[in-house]
Amino acid sequence: MFGPLYSWTVRWAGHRRAPWALGGLSVAESSVFPIPPDVLLAPMALARPNRAASFALIATVGSVLGGLIGYALGYFALYLVEPWIEAADYEQAYRTAVEWFREWGFWVVLVAGFSPIPYKVFTVAAGATGVALLPFIIASLLGRGARFFLVAGLVAWGGARLEPWLLRHVERLGWISVIVLLLGILWVKYG
Q1: What would the pLDDT profile of 78-114 be if each residue is shown by its tens digit?
Q2: Fewer CB within 10 Å, N side or C side of the chain?
Q3: Domain spans of the chain, in order of start
Q4: What count of other Cβ atoms lies within 10 Å of the Cβ of residue 78?
Q5: pTM of the shown model
Q6: Where is the VTT domain (predicted)?
């Protein structure tokens, strides 16, 4: 199932309108859509390594804009989003996110932005819990930017030889990065 989808994505990555698709996917993923922009960002960086940084910037800006949509949904219209949260089986993740926001605030947005955890859950929870907007935006820019620039940079640097390895280990790398980031945050906060 994923092989043909991946092949289609690689073909689409070279299209002249691919940056628009990447921006749209990034906005949608941060608010309601389940597929992360990395699936388009990586092949685009592979197809045009000299433009990898601009693709990462598009994904970052789009993701933060989508995060603001998710934030607004949580802040103004949580009652409309709650059935979707339940239907998508994100209810437990959402409740956990709300608890974390009450305790950690800014740091949760930063880690969620970088991690493979569904970011949309955290954007909606941030709005629902009333996380301050400016710290939310800053943490989103830092977390999402770090993630997308890392993905684009690694793919552009490693090229085709890195792609199979990255696809095999993307989940593990994501979780290792989250653990390292969490340890860094704990060290800064309590060290």
Answers
A1: 878 788 778 878 788 778 878 888 787 788 888 888 7
A2: N
A3: 2-190
A4: 16
A5: 0.75
A6: 54-155
